[in-house]
Design a protein that fits this description.
Layout: H1 11-24
Protein name: 30S ribosomal protein S16
InterPro entries: Uncharacterised_MJ1172
Pfam families: DUF2683 (PF10884)
Length: 64
């Protein structure tokens, strides 16, 4: 069967679509797009790079 993607302009249109589909016995799935661009579902793990070994030299003694 065909699938339709509908983009209502406001909450009133969304509620009307839901009511009509419920009255006709049409199943529908909810899909939230509000946070998909800013918060992706896949979490990225941070890759830690090995820091180069630093060899610190003693500071020269001053005044002695």
């Amino acid at each position: 069967m065909e699938a339709l993607i509908v983009h209502p302009k406001n909450q009133m249109e969304l509620n009307a679509l839901k009511d009509v589909m419920k009255d006709m016995g049409i199943r529908y799935e909810k899909f939230h797009t509000r946070n998909t661009k800013t918060q992706p579902f896949l979490t990225k793990t941070a890759v830690k790079k090995d820091k180069p070994v630093r060899n610190f030299k003693d500071k020269p003694k001053s005044g002695e």
